[in-house]
Amino acid sequence: MLTYLSTALPRFTSLAARLLALQCALRTDARGRVRLPAGLLCGMRLRGQREVWHELADAGWLEMPNFRSVPVQMRLLDAAVLDQAPSRRSRCRAAHWALHPAPLLLPATPPALRLTALVLAAHTSVHAQHCIDMDILTRLCGHSSQQIEELLDRLVAIRILRAWLRHRGTDEVLWHLPNHRHETASL
Known about the structure:
Elements lengths: L1 H7 L6 H13 L5 E4 L1 H6 L6 H9 L13 E4 L12 H12 L11 H12 L7 E4 H8 L3 H13 L5 E5 L4 E5 L3 H7 L1
Antiparallel strand pairs: 1-2, 3-5, 4-5
Helix pairs in contact: 2-4, 2-5, 2-6, 6-8
């Protein structure tokens, strides 16, 4: 779904709008209708932020919702979202996981950090070292490579990542997760 959204949404779409679009795409029914509970929008810190909705509506991706209804309801206008392969049940699980992307669980953070951590979590492997091509990372996050590097530094500073490195020869971003086993053993 992250790949689909990276092509379906305009490049200048804000990170908050991308996170909202992800939840809408994963929670849509077979007819493109979406219902988002008020608690979900509050938890995402998007309740009352109409400019995010306007971004997606101006891009022709969804109809503006009626904000007086609870839950917030709208219809997605991009028919391609309905052609995505996962079943409705799988998409609901993915929508929940996108809010809590294990193993990169975040405290309340800005959308830029949340989206970056989500993309990294989606590309985290069972190996100790994880990697993704910088071009893919920038496309999926909607950032420049300089912005990505700053966000990765911030993820290290708040201990979501232990370390990261950009391999200049292959242009891959490599990262290590904190070793929670050693942290809990020392407590």
